[in-house]
User: Which sequence fits this backbone?
């Protein structure tokens, strides 16, 4: 299933209250690229922001969104890149099927972080 037409708006509305602002969201058939600014920026990608984005996408799965690979780019409020991370579609499926734990899923994502 394709993402909801208003996916970008819904993601942004839900994350703004947490200090995460979507700058760009590009969804394709097998990949979702999310670039966001964070007020939590120091010198690295804030792990809590990754969790907020991932958990929000997991909620959309309950609405019929079929997981795809998610690639995130975090920036500070001046637009300076902090780093990137990703989550494979298979990891979402494995988590939903109880083939991996929440901790394993989170660790897989955190292991992909590449600091700028």
Assistant:
């Amino acid at each position: 299933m394709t993402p909801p037409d208003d996916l970008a708006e819904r993601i942004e509305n839900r994350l703004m209250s947490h200090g995460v602002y979507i700058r760009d969201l590009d969804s394709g058939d097998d990949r979702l690229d999310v670039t966001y600014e964070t007020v939590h920026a120091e010198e690295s990608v804030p792990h809590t922001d990754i969790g907020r984005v991932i958990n929000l996408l997991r909620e959309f799965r309950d609405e019929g969104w079929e997981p795809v690979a998610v690639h995130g780019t975090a920036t500070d409020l001046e637009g300076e890149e902090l780093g990137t991370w990703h989550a494979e579609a298979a990891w979402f499926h494995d988590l939903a099927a109880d083939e991996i734990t929440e901790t394993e899923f989170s660790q897989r994502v955190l292991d992909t972080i590449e600091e700028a």
User: Anything to note?
Assistant: The chain has a mean pLDDT of 91. Helices lie at 7-16, 47-61, 89-96, 102-110. The chain has one domain: 7-115.
